[in-house]
Amino acid sequence: MADMPQDWVARSLRSVWHPCTQMQHHANGDNSVPLIPVSHGRGAWLYDHEGKRYLDAISSWWVNLFGHANPVINAALKDQLDRLEHAMLAGFTHEPVVRLSEQLSEMTGKVLGHAFYASDGASAVEIALKMSFHAWRNAGLSDKQEFVCLQGSYHGETIGALAVTDVALFKDAYGPLLRAARVVTSPDARNAQDGESAQDVARRAAADVEKLFEERAGHIAAIIIEPLVQCATGMAMHDPLYLTLVRELCDRFQVHMILDEIAVGCGRTGTFFACEQAAIWPDFLCLSKGISGGYLPLSLVLTRDEVYQAFYSADVTRGFLHSHSYTGNPLACRAALATLQIFKDDDVLNRNRARATRLTTALAPLAEHERVRNFRQRGMIWAFDAVEPDAARAATFSRRFFASALENELLLRPIGRTVYLMPPYILSDEESDGLAERTRAVFDTVIAS
Ligand SMILES: Cc1ncc(COP(=O)(O)O)c(C=O)c1O
What's the CATH code of the domain at 294? Predict the structure, then answer.
């Protein structure tokens, strides 16, 4: 007998510990947070076992670029499955990892010449932090042991990545385990004081970095930044000028610049790499999420040749002796190659410009809503902050919004009171207009309820 949809929910709650979830919220009677058993996905839609559908307006945690069950990526993976599913990357190499590394290097104008692979975003961040420290140590600068991060930064949940994260909800419980990082002012354009532009805020935030570097550069290995949009803190957007100014400071004070493009890379902000908008390259660039089209866990760190050369030696201990079992997995790399091919074949970045204009126009009534503040957009990210003066209702806003969105065929999960859209790059005009309309309807319901 076929399993009933409700069985999957009950069985999941008995056996699966879901991520980033207070599990009791799934078992809270009338206030219960829904748990949807997904049966399959097609294009921008996820379907449950009863045939109900949900527009994946946040690309399944920002990973899915070209829709579920994408025919091009599916075909590439099926082909790769019959060739090589996996081989260790120490002492062996293979076509997908070589081609992917070459293409990514090419896309940085060969400034970032080598790619080091891992699986999840947090592991890429760990790699960049370790590499930065070790590169300085190999250069005889072993006092450079500190890392700088931005207010509200998010770089993942492993111990090293959490140490450079500044989101209390995720970090505070583990405080005693973490090495303290130096936290500098966020260039978040919402911090503009009267008469200040986003560029003024960027200059003020960069001045804070300059002051810290003047005092401590001899002890600082790297500054880590989510370029253009600090996503997990609530889609805090800043002017590209900030990146240009910090790059200059890093050069002047001999501090590495790590750009975490895990969420904002792969075209999300309008250019393939977010840092292109500031006309700079970092010393380390972390990619994950969208790079495999949302199919398989893949992350990587692109580095400058100076960094690579700092490890190149006859002495084994000067090498970067870091590894993960699935490093450079051929299936994941093949999914990434298919993803890059779609960018080229479908002129994705240009077509996204038209998509973005249409959705921004469709969202205009929400932008002007009396209970909305700070409507903002960059590339394929839209966000706004809900005004909810009642503290108890503000605390449950996100959960209520998520549940109401599902009733309106939308997958949306606000961060606190920040509602955001990060859809895949395939929405038809009809889907885009429907998304705007329904987001407005859900917002009105949740604000009024
Ligand atoms: C900017 C940034 N860095 C790192 C991570 C961690 O990636 P993962 O969840 O794959 O470990 C995330 C995840 O949301 C992220 O947004």
Answer: 3.40.640.10
